[in-house]
Structure formats: structure tokens, C-alpha cells
Amino acid sequence: MTIRRALATLTGLALLATSGCTADDRPDRTDDRRTLTVFAAASLTESFTAIGREFEANHPGVTVTFTFGGSSALATQITQGAPADVFAAAAPRNMTTVTDAGAAAGAPVVFARNQLVIAVPKGNPGRVRRLADLGRRGTKVAICAEQVPCGAAARAALDASGIELVPATLEQDVRGALAKVRLGEVDAALVYRTDARAAAEVDGIEFPESARAVNDYPIVALRDARDPATARAFVDLVTSARGAAVLTAAGFQPPAVL
């Protein structure tokens, strides 16, 4: 019995040692799995922040981190190996950059649409009333650079309307253009309806020409997601009725029905 007990003790110690090594390794992998990194267009900041909080509440132990910015820059970062689990773009063109590089896990899904408005400072000191006013001599206007979805949409609306415009500044995302208005550095900016609605210091002026340049927003889980199931679950929430409710409240339009 003594020998048997000794052997049992040694075996138990060996198992504990092995278990200890596994436990030491596991936390790092668990931490990775429980951190969901989402790259998203700057215009999604408020909506996705709210959706992220709801996702965390429904998935205890998961922390959602966001990188918001211009869709073109985010797409480039992903194709160059930046660690991300989900990508949401403000235009299909930027999503194509990711899918063509083989970085997407499956087909992207369009979950919302967005339209431009003219953002002006409160009180509208530049007296901008319509799109044509942006071409007046002395009117300072901020728009996004053309490689950014909000810039491509602005250029499409301006070209379709035959309006000549030399912007005072070209910004790398819609938040940059909006900041110029908030700081009083320009008389107006072409930004998304959702961004103007979220900014207390500005007013948004609707203009009919914006219907000629509506942006579709696609989302996809990425091929190198650390936890593919969690990445897909986030995409599912964004594309669900609950996600649509959050986006609609922020001013987004539902996807076009084909």
C-alpha cells in the first residue's frame, strides 16, 4: 500500500505540473479570443460604439475595441497585416480592396446606407442654403479627399450638378471635414447626414443632389480573426433588427432592397 500510495502521489504531482503548464499558456490565448477588434468607417463611431456596448453585455468576458478612420486607410492597413477581426467600410470600393486581397472570411453584407448633407456652423454665418452656394466666391468649404468614401460621394454630387468647387481643405475622413466646421475654419462642409446629426455645434442642410451619391456600407468578418465565431456574432448583431434600429436612430438608411 505504501508503494501504491507513493506512485499515486507522484502521478498526481505530474498531472498537476502538466496542468499548470497548460494553464500558464491558456490566459494569453483566452485574452486574444476575448478581445474583438473592429475596423470601421469614421462615420460609424457613435452607432458602433453603442452596438459594441450591447455586444459586450450579451457576451460576458468579451471586450470590443474599435479603430475608426477613413475606409481607404483602414482597408490598406488590413491588407498589410494589421490585426483586426471585423471590417465595416463606408463604400463597397474599399471593401473590394480587402476581398480582392483574400482577407475576408466570406462575402460582405451591406447593412446600411448614408447620404450627404451640407454642414454649417450654428447660425449659418456663411448663409449657405443649397449646394450651388458652395461655389460662391469667398465661400470656404471642406470636403473629404476623393479616395475616401465621403469625398467620392461629394465629387459625384458636385459633378452631377455641374458645380465648380475649389475646396479650402481636403480631409482624410468625414470627422476631419466636420471638425473644420465646428472650429469655424470653413463656412460649410459636405459630410454624412449621420455625422451632422451627431454634432451639436453644427446644422445639417439637406440638398436633393445628394440622392445621386448614396453610399452603401458593407461589413465582413476577416479571415485572420482570432476568434471567427465571435467575429461572425458581431456581424450578425450589426445586420440584425436590433443593429438596424441603432443605425436608423443615428440617421442611417436601411440597405436597398434588391
Could you describe the 3D structure shown?
The chain folds into two domains: 30-113 and 216-249, D-Maltodextrin-Binding Protein, domain 2 (3-Layer(aba) Sandwich); 116-212, Periplasmic binding protein-like II (D-Maltodextrin-Binding Protein, domain 2), CATH 3.40.190.10. The protein is 43% helix and 20% strand. The chain has nine helices and ten strands. The chain has a five-stranded mixed beta sheet. The chain has a five-stranded mixed beta sheet with strand order 7-6-8-5-9. Helix 5 (149-161) links the parallel strand 6 (141-144) and strand 7. Helix 3 runs parallel beside helix 4. It is elongated and about 55 Å long. The termini are far apart. 42% of the residues are buried.
Topology:
Blueprint: H1 2-33, E1 35-41, H2 45-58, E2 63-69, H3 71-79, E3 86-88, H4 92-100, E4 109-114, E5 116-121, E6 141-144, H5 149-161, E7 169-171, H6 174-182, E8 188-192, H7 193-198, E9 202-205, E10 215-221, H8 228-238, H9 241-249
Parallel strand pairs: 1-2, 1-3, 6-7, 6-8
Antiparallel strand pairs: 3-10, 4-10, 5-8, 5-9
Helix pairs in contact: 3-4
Provide a concise account of the structure shown.
This protein has helices at residues 2-33, 45-58, 71-79, 92-100, 149-161, 174-182, 193-198, 228-238, 241-249; strands spanning 35-41, 63-69, 86-88, 109-114, 116-121, 141-144, 169-171, 188-192, 202-205, 215-221.
